[in-house]
Automatic annotation (TrEMBL):
Belongs to the SRP receptor beta subunit family. One of its GO terms (biological process) is intracellular protein transport. One of its GO terms (cellular component) is endoplasmic reticulum membrane. Keywords: Endoplasmic reticulum, GTP-binding, Membrane, Nucleotide-binding, Receptor, Transmembrane, Transmembrane helix. This is Signal recognition particle receptor subunit beta. GO terms for molecular function: GTP binding; GTPase activity. It is found in: Endoplasmic reticulum membrane.
Amino acid sequence: MDSNYIKLIISVLTVLVTLILYVVYQRARKSRRSILLVGLRESGKTLTFTQLIHGQYVETFTSIKENIGDYETNNGTVRIIDIPGHEQLRYKFFDKYKSNARALVYIIDSTLNSANLRDTAECLYNILSDSVVINNRLPVLVLCNKQDISTASNNDLLKQQLEEEFALLRVTKSHQLESVDLKAQKSAFLGREGEKFKFEDLPIKVSFAETCAILKDNYSSKKGLDDFKKWLIKVA
Ligand SMILES: Nc1nc2c(ncn2[C@@H]2O[C@H](COP(=O)(O)OP(=O)(O)OP(=O)(O)O)[C@@H](O)[C@H]2O)c(=O)[nH]1
Ligand SMILES: [Mg+2]
């Protein structure tokens, strides 16, 4: 057979296989339509959820179960799942819902001090090194909430502080696994070895935005959840 003819067949087959894989990937992505709200206790997940789904302020208490509601964007409907931040419940609920997740929202109390910065970073680190999150390439939005409070840091500063914590965490996490297999050690190490940790170096897209869920004062009437809603349209 003519070699040009073989090359043509190979090219056509490559295009076909790529197309099929793309369609299968898009279908799988569309079938996963949950957006999970995760984060530490008191960061504002439930208030964000009620503002988004019911458009109202409610007094919230520590969640012990998830809240689920549909949110309509002009790009399609997504299912929002608010996961309790309590240490003993957080990963249990996350594991229950992660396979059906389209994207994740990690909510931070932007007034955090150095003591809870570590916990905030560690929980995010665990989520970003989860194999389901990585394999499904779940986009992650870090929401720097409570921007109405005067001591709140902006998202650039919080991003930088989290990157510094991640640089320390990836060393401790991979050392903890020293006696275990090399593969596990590698997957516990996020970012590029020998380089400063940057969210941009992760295989998944991590973006940052500022919000205020309380919607009571001037700041919130200007901004509120706007940036979160814009991101939801993109991932829907
Ligand atoms: N000032 C201010 N307070 C907020 C904001 N968002 C939430 N809060 C308050 O922070 C507290 C905790 O909010 P929740 O929404 O219950 O926090 P959560 O993340 O669901 O907490 P868990 O259910 O324990 O995981 C409540 O008193 C909220 O009113 C915000 O944007 N600004
Ligand atoms: Mg809650």
